[in-house]
Amino acid sequence: MLGAGLLAKNAVAAGLTVAPYIKTSLSPGSGVVTYYLQESKVIDALTQLGFDIVGYGCMTCIGNSGGIDENIVNAIEQNDLVCCGVLSGNRNFEGRIHPNTRANYLASPLLVIAYAIAGTVDIDFEREPLGKRPDGKPVFLRDIWPTRKEIQVVEQQHVIPAMFQQVYSRIQLGSSSWQALNAPSGKLYPWSESSTYIKKPPFFDGMTKDLPPSVRISGARVLLFLGDSVTTDHISPAGSIGRNSPAARYLAQNGLTPREFNSYGSRRGNDAVMARGTFANIRIVNKFMSKAGPKTLYLPTNEEMDVFDCAERYKASQTPLIIIAGKDYGSGSSRDWAAKGPYLLGVRAVIAESFERIHRSNLVGMGIIPLQFLPNETAETLGLTGKEDYTIELPNEMKPGQHIKISTNAGKDFNVILRFDTEVDLLFYKHGGILNYMIRKIVA
Q1: Which N-terminal stretch is annotated as signal sequence (predicted)?
Q2: Alpha helices in 295-346, H assignment, sequence order
Q3: Could you tell me the CA-to-CA distances from 409 to 26, 220, 288, 301, 384 in Å, in that order?
Q4: Could you tell me the pTM of the whole model?
Q5: I need a surface site. Which of 112, 226, 265, 282 has the fewest CB within 10 A?
Q6: Which residues, in sequence order, are CB contacts of 261 under 8 Å at separation 6+?
Q7: Is-contact 107 115, C-beta < 8 A?
Q8: Is the pLDDT of residue 293 over 80?
Q9: What distance separates the 2 farthest-apart alpha carbons in the chain?
Q10: 3-state class percentages of the chain: helix first, strand second, coil last, to nearest 5
Q11: How far is 277 from 428, CA to CA, in rounded Å?
């Protein structure tokens, strides 16, 4: 971070600037970083290049670093542009840091500044200049890159133990806004019906003390027909809430304006928002549709609609739902809502070529059955269109890893691997998921 500040300082001294169409922001890992950037007097140069401090921690990675100019958004969408982001974070999934950046690259803080000045990722820093000085002379990255010794000198002078002690001694106090919050007393949380952030979850509604009877999955329809490398961010995005999404409509109905929507990550305590946000990533590719986006087909009438609205229509007719996917379903960062969301939509099983390890476990934890195509078999090789009715033949006595039969109304039957990998997986499924299992264990 100090290196980035020094590079920015050198860039400003050389007369370099960042173009107005380049979105820039700075969200340090902690207040200590702000402290030593200020003390080393590099913060002004960062600000001059547009890297103002907008927050802390995971802001950029979760899509909370702010919007971009609507004229730019319109240009991207109207011309179907593949636009890029460069961040010194740890999440670069498509559309993660902003819905309109498809290609995101991870880089050091110094390189983030450099690419912002260059205004493009299509540059060879060795041969092409970042820009020109006021006198017209080219400025290359090597001309403004601080040496290791320069960085170490500043670090020794300005990154001192007293900074950490001072910042972290106040960490439990929080800001004045935090201190002004009214905290409820009592052992039970007083749910507020008017809150759009924290809502009593429905996971235990209708739960009985005894184990529920095993229910056959018959006549299931495919909610989405997906390909390879569907990430947890495709399944349950954490970033901004699209203005035309089901979640946006819900929040608007509750009196909120678009400026108040915030992000899915910030509203993860409200199941009504998160269910509507499931499969709401604008870059998700559903084979039922002609282009990427959070849409699917209501198969009985072939109507195109938002995924949540389609699931609600199926729910009204008590139709069980499944997902068909390719390889590495659920890859990316672990996210509980990537399993909770599909559960709330009525998804009973996911049939995929392979699963990311943790996500498979999370599906089991929500009572969703992970099923895997046999080796060398896929939806394509089996001739599946996804528009069939599916019946999953679950035996009364299931065993980890056993083969089970799936039949369709199109006359295509095939076997899959039951990806309950342990006896504990089976135990959780019989209880309807790990949450129900734990409650029954507590009250037993």
Answers
A1: none
A2: 307-316, 337-345
A3: 55, 10, 19, 17, 11
A4: 0.86
A5: 282
A6: 240, 241, 243, 247, 248, 251
A7: yes
A8: yes
A9: 81
A10: 30, 15, 50
A11: 26
